[in-house]
Design brief:
Growth Hormone, Chain: A; mainly alpha; 18 helices
């Protein structure tokens, strides 16, 4: 067993096992987009059932992240990871052989719960294995890079599978990964648990689910159908339950979520940077992909090919961030990345409706590279700021905020783009979406051009807001994280030994 602060060979092999989980989870999400038409036809899934097949996974994942992160701290992170891996593999087989749409919805929900055991446990174990802050940052960067590789490779892998096999093969893809984790995990992954933690508070679990699930559902419905009363009420109900959840955590001796984590300035600032960065990137990615297909008129395949360069650059930048941080203070690397992202957003505001594809893609490349630098380093700072016994809880906070960031970005910035679009439509055109406006104006080239220009204006508005947010986050990064205490000094205090038994 490695008793020094420097990681050894066994530790890097352990990272490979944990990174394979990140790769699987991202592939598993992206591959379903291609499989949905096939499985819907085979199972006779209605339109609402198709939406639930897609959405229930993210609902349950977001809802259970906090609970599972804290549960791992209590019962053992490796134990929870291995149990979740076994469950994920078994439920994946059940999903692949679903005989009805209802069965697939249920198995997707169970996959979301199982996935919630894997993500925070993986990152928490990285925190425990890599005690040197620089190596921890590099390890987290590699973990995120694997996640992004999975997102980029998912459509390609899914296309190959669906070309030669039935739709269920998309779910069986995860089974070999889980077998590797179950075989190699006990050999290379250490166990860690907080021996002083109390029992899991079930009332807090219920309140956390009552806060997260309605909020995520409401945000998705706002994205889909606009600011309808039911969606707004769901978000409000989630917020009210969130208030009750926070109040209960403050009273408990062993809370489900230790709110003292937010008292660390480095932790709170990094969380804010990552969540708002996720809001911006979710909104801009939505508007850019819509532009490529509905304004530029590209096929889904061509649009997907244009999106490959930003993804590749982001993967490279995730690994480059920790290397740069060895020579330059991490706060300046993160702030520089955010400034680069702001420049990319600003460039997007110069794209026009007739030939703006190249400008948009270059801007998105800069934005993706820019956000990748604070993403890997920021998560490293958060994990280093958290006490070892709270690493699972810290990881769950990071990942839950990511889920909220995407949902808020799509809902809020998507609504901004839609509002600017509707305000800019030519007289006589009445549509809520670009697809509707295109269908309405096909017979009139001038009106069609006006509708496309109106959507481009909405994209400009989102990019402008994104540039302003990124610049503000760059200032926050330098102001707060530049003066953060040396994590190496704090790491020098003894930590409980890891065990492989």
């Amino acid at each position: 067993m490695n008793t020094t602060s420097t990681a050894g060979k066994r530790d890097w092999i352990a990272l490979g096992v944990l990174s394979s989980i990140a790769l699987l989870l991202s592939v598993d999400v992206s591959v379903l987009y291609l499989a949905l038409p096939h499985l819907s036809s085979e199972l006779g899934a209605s339109a609402p059932q198709q939406l639930w097949i897609m959405d229930i996974y993210s609902f349950m994942l977001a809802g259970f992240l906090v609970t599972m992160g804290t549960l791992g701290d209590r019962i053992g992170r490796r134990r929870l990871l291995l149990a979740g891996s076994a469950a994920f593999g078994l439920v994946s087989v059940a999903a692949a052989f679903s005989s009805s749409a209802e069965m697939l919805v249920v198995t997707r929900a169970l996959l979301g719960i199982a996935g919630a055991t894997l993500m925070p446990s993986s990152m928490a174990l990285i925190r425990n294995i890599f005690r040197d802050p620089k190596q921890m940052g590099a390890a987290i960067g590699i973990w995120f890079s694997c996640f992004m590789v999975g997102m980029a490779a998912g459509p390609l892998v899914g296309g190959l599978l669906l070309q030669h096999f039935w739709w269920g093969s998309a779910f069986l893809l995860g089974v070999p990964f889980m077998v590797v984790v179950l075989v190699a995990g006990p050999l290379v992954l250490p166990e860690y648990r907080d021996g002083t933690a109390g029992r899991l508070d079930l009332a807090s679990v219920a309140l956390s689910l009552g806060a997260i699930l309605p909020a995520i559902y409401g945000l998705k419905e706002i994205t889909r159908s606009g600011w309808q009363p039911a969606a707004v009420l769901a978000v409000a109900a989630g917020a009210a339950m969130g208030v009750l959840f926070v109040r209960r955590q403050r009273r408990l001796a062993d809370p489900l979520l230790d709110l003292r984590l937010f008292g660390d300035r480095a932790f709170a600032a990094s969380l804010t940077i990552l969540m708002l960065g996720g809001v911006v990137m979710a909104g801009i990615t939505l508007t850019v992909t819509t532009f490529l297909q509905s304004v530029a008129g590209l096929s889904p395949l061509a649009a997907g090919l244009w999106m490959i360069p930003p993804s590749l650059v982001m993967i490279v930048a995730l690994s480059a961030g920790p290397m740069l941080a060895r020579r330059v203070q991490p706060a300046y690397v993160m702030a520089g990345g955010l400034a680069l992202g702001a420049a990319g957003m600003a460039l997007m505001t110069f794209a026009d409706a007739s030939g703006g594809v190249a400008v948009l893609v270059v801007g998105l490349v800069l934005a993706q590279a820019g956000i990748a630098l604070p993403m890997g380093l920021g998560n490293g700072i958060m994990m280093a700021a958290a006490p070892p016994e709270k690493a699972g809880s810290a990881a769950s906070i990071s990942e839950t905020s990511g889920e909220f960031g995407v949902a808020v970005g799509v809902a809020a910035l998507g609504s901004l783009a839609a509002a600017v679009f509707r305000a800019g439509l030519p007289a006589g055109v009445d549509a809520d979406t670009l697809a509707g406006a295109v269908a309405e104006t096909l017979g009139d080239p001038a009106l069609l051009a006006g509708a496309r220009a109106a959507y481009t204006s909405g994209l400009h508005a989102v990019a402008g807001v994104g540039a302003a947010v990124f610049l503000g986050l760059a200032v926050l990064t330098v102001a707060v994280l530049r003066a953060r205490p040396d994590r190496q000094e704090r790491q020098a205090t003894p930590e409980p030994a890891l065990t492989w038994s």
